[in-house]
User: What shape does this take?
Amino acid sequence: MAMSMFEWIGEAINPGPVGDVEGRPPQVVRHRVWSFVLGLIGWTLLGVWIFFLWRWTGIQQWKWFAGGLIGTFLYLLVGYFIMPRPDYSNLGWFGGVIDHPFRYSDDLNRSLVFLRIVLLPGRIWAMALVNPFLLRHLQERAARAAERAEARQQADAQLEADLERFLERPDRS
Assistant: This one.
């Protein structure tokens, strides 16, 4: 109790920087081979996980199996979209080994480090599952954009040719 009171007073006098939590998906791996390999590994791991979950719970306990699947899905979803970013300059004394007695912001940063470590496997696994589909979508979108740009260029060239033909007509007054 006394220690938390010291942290409360110390933080009011000299507040420390605190990290944040970013809520956006990671960058897409744009290399086809790596994307395919990561996708293959990710989907294989998911199949093995579902198999072991089914073997562990058994068909008689389908509620536990469904709960495990929902929990896995939520973990992957949170791991994919949530990225804690602690401020590593404020983890406590000696790099976080000893708690700073006059700050609670170092406790928050250490919690963000812990959350980052817990969510990192889910983020990597979810990236491996999602990346091949996103890469395919981005390639298709880039192809459609190139087609639209080419069509726009052809339409502009046709418009310029029509305008020049119109301006060269002798019967125009």
User: Anything to note?
Assistant: The chain is about 70% helix and 5% strand. The mean pLDDT is 78.
